[in-house]
Design goal:
Chain A: InterPro entries: Peptide_deformylase, Peptide_deformylase_sf. The complex is a heterodimer. Chain A is an alpha+beta fold. Chain A has two helices and five strands, in the order αβββββα. Chain B contains four helices and nine strands. Classes of the chains: A alpha+beta, B alpha+beta. Chains A and B meet through strand 1, strand 3, strand 4 and helix 2 of A and helix 4, strand 8 and strand 9 of B.
């Protein structure tokens, strides 16, 4: 197990497109363990992608389980992930281990259907929404050499479609 | 080490202001930091951090021809850099209502009483001159829960101001 170095912008390798994983062997599982350790070492990252540590294969980890109110599938190692269906869109704020001290608003699909292999090579499908779906889209972007800074929209462009809190009914003032 | 200055430039809007101003600063070796450049009404406004070892007078001299030609007013303050220390907003407050005096004071007073830290506020006057609509978008940091802020702002409703408070869920990946 080892904590790996994270590539940071403007490192041009972050723009590289990663190749599909073909061998589901012990070396892959060792790398996944290192990748997970690296994710947990950083500042509260819910996801990490292999190219962020300089391995240009289609492997990401997403884990939103630390957020109890967020619907999530636990710790997911997604090998050769593919989004097969998108629905809706919403704005949300993102940051990235590869872009320290910067956050920006990005539009992502609200709901996705995802197909991916696990580290043993078995194929799974997941229905995801909201925060977890956002994390997966952010990580898959890394596999295609895309960073969230390439997708940031102006803060003035207000497209938030998020949950709001019901206002309390006003009580009549005492007579 | 460079010292930082905050340059404020304001003038009637027209194309080309940013390129002319920044080229002049580049010419005297200034490095630009964080900036906000925005059209407000018919004016273009620049607030820009500039790192330089030049004295203020050198900056003024470099900018004078551009400012004169484009009709820009210039103001310079010496400031601390304090880069790489972004505070992250966790709450967004959206406000809209028929324009009247006091909306901003009413909303921000209520937020300040809850210890809310405004990191960014932008506002627009939409609609038309007969019935202007004031729209404001605040992002900030609150130690207190969203529900508490909603309660604190509840009275605004009765005064014709619609207020929407929502959490900003930062996703780091």
């Amino acid at each position: 197990m080892a904590i790996l170095d994270i590539l940071k912008l403007p490192d041009p390798r972050l723009k590289q497109v990663s190749t599909p994983v073909e061998h589901f062997d012990a070396a892959l599982r060792d790398f996944v363990a290192d990748l997970e350790e690296t994710r947990q070492d950083g500042p509260a990252a819910v996801g990490i992608a292999a190219p962020q540590v300089g391995r240009f294969e289609r492997i990401v980890i997403v884990d939103c389980s630390s957020r109890p109110k967020t619907p999530n599938h636990g710790n997911l190692v997604l090998v050769n992930p593919e989004i097969v269906h998108w629905e809706g869109y919403e704005m949300g704020r993102e940051g990235c281990l590869s872009v320290p001290d910067y956050t920006g608003n990005v539009i992502r699909a609200t709901q996705i259907r995802l197909r991916a292999q696990d580290p043993e090579g078995a194929v799974h499908e997941y229905e995801m929404e909201g925060y977890e779906a956002r994390a997966v889209q952010h990580e898959i972007d890394h596999l295609d050499g895309m960073l969230f800074v390439d997708r940031v929209v102006s803060r003035r462009t207000d497209l938030y479609q998020r949950k709001t809190y019901a206002k309390k009914k006003k009580s009549k003032p005492a007579a | 080490m460079s010292d930082w200055m905050m340059l404020t430039l304001v003038g009637a809007d027209r194309p080309g202001i940013v390129s002319r101003v920044t080229r002049a600063l580049c010419g005297v070796g200034c490095n630009l930091g964080e900036a906000s450049m925005l059209r407000l009404g018919g004016n273009f406004t620049i607030m820009m951090m500039v790192a330089t070892e030049q004295p203020e007078s050198a900056l003024r001299a470099a900018l004078a021809p551009v400012a004169d030609e484009l009709g820009l007013r210039l103001h310079i303050d010496t400031v601390n850099g304090e880069l790489h220390q972004h505070l992250l907003p966790n709450v967004q407050v959206r406000v809209s209502g028929a324009d009247r005096t006091g909306i901003v004071a009413d909303v921000t007073e209520a937020l300040a009483a809850e210890g809310f830290h405004i990191l960014e506020l932008e506002s627009d006057v939409a609609g038309d001159s007969a019935s202007p609509l004031y729209i404001m978008n605040i992002q900030g940091h609150s130690e207190r829960p969203v529900e508490r802020l909603v309660e604190a702002l509840a009275g605004l409703d009765a005064r014709g101001v619609s207020v929407d408070v929502a959490a900003i869920d930062l996703m780091i990946g």
